[in-house]
Design brief:
Blueprint (H helix, E strand, L loop, with lengths): L6 H8 L27 E10 L7 E8 L4 E7 L18 E6 L2 E6 L9 E6 L14 E8 L2 E8 L10 E6 L6 E8 L2 E12 L19 H11 L17
Antiparallel strand pairs: 1-2, 1-11, 2-3, 3-4, 4-5, 5-6, 7-8, 8-9, 9-10, 10-11
């Protein structure tokens, strides 16, 4: 499977389906499927990140969504999703945030003691937070047990071949349609986000831009400098095999 040549598109995929804004308006969910899930206007959730090519490895993160402010924040803790390259489990060992706000996506590096002092730059102008109903074009793919949870599986085309969708989203069969897992192709290849600690409603996490310097465009030298400055981070070993969806 060939990855999209634009690195920005790869990162957008891992930031929970931001590319879905570009999909058509036709509803492809089967008539016999359960109602298509929709995100609440505000929620937070913890992430466990798995990268297929890294083997017995995992990292953690968190996601914060507030569509009343049209803002989305994804934190990668002690391992930053590569900004301009394919990375490795031994590199990118620093904490970073991708922040979609004011209609654009920003990269924030956690280099200080407080959010307002962090370094940041403009990653992708015009890349905004997805609306709560971003899943309306997904295709229902039956039920599946994921992480000991009975789930509804949802797929959407992410390759040039619509018959081979390569992105998936799993929701628990409960009243909240709790998110359980996301799968997609990122800048580091097939990647899984496992969700936990899902909390609908407000949260106390900054969603503002740290400084005026965020309007400067991100460039590869910045990524290299930040990686060298932050040093090593933690890696988390997992003792169970991951069931990787097939593309």
């Amino acid at each position: 499977m060939m990855l999209d040549s634009r690195m920005t598109s790869c990162v957008e995929i891992l930031l929970c389906c931001l590319l879905l804004l570009g999909l058509g308006n036709q509803d492809t969910a089967a008539a016999s499927s359960p109602p298509v899930p929709s995100w609440p206007d505000q929620f937070s959730v913890q992430l466990t990140i798995y990268v297929e090519q890294y083997g017995n490895w995992q990292s953690i993160g968190a996601m914060y969504y507030n569509y009343t402010q049209k803002t989305f924040r994804a934190d990668y803790i002690d391992w930053c999703l590569p900004l301009f390259d394919t990375g490795s489990p031994d590199k990118n060992n620093y904490t970073c945030t991708f922040l979609a706000t004011q209609g654009s996506m920003y990269f924030v590096n956690h280099t200080a003691l407080s959010w307002d002092d962090y370094q940041c730059c403009l990653f992708e102008e015009g890349l905004a937070a997805v609306p709560p109903d971003w899943m309306k074009n997904c295709q229902y793919n039956g039920t599946q047990q994921i992480w000991d949870t009975e789930c509804d599986a949802w797929w959407f085309p992410g390759t040039s071949d619509p018959e081979k969708p390569c992105y998936g989203y799993w929701t628990a069969q409960d009243d909240q349609r709790t998110p359980v897992q996301f799968f997609g192709l990122s800048s580091v290849g097939p990647t899984i986000l496992k969700y936990s600690g899902y909390k609908p409603g407000p949260f106390d996490v900054p969603l503002n831009l740290p400084s005026a310097s965020c309007q400067q465009e991100c460039k590869p030298p910045l990524s290299k400098r930040l990686r060298k400055a932050m040093g090593g981070g933690r890696k988390r070993e997992q003792a169970w095999p991951i069931q990787w969806p097939s593309c």
